[in-house]
Amino acid sequence: GIQPVVHRAAAPANVLINAEGQPILSGLQWASPLVNPTAFPFVGVTAELFQYLAPEQIRERGLALPTLDTYALGALLYTLVTGKIPFKGRDARETLRKKITHDFRSPETLTPGLSRSVVQIIRECLRADPNRRPASLLKLREFLDCTNRVVGGYRLRGYLGSGKSGDVYQAVSARGRQVAIKLLAPKIADD
Question: How many Cα atoms occupy the beta-carbon half-sphere of 9 within 13 Å?
Answer without folding.
Answer: 22
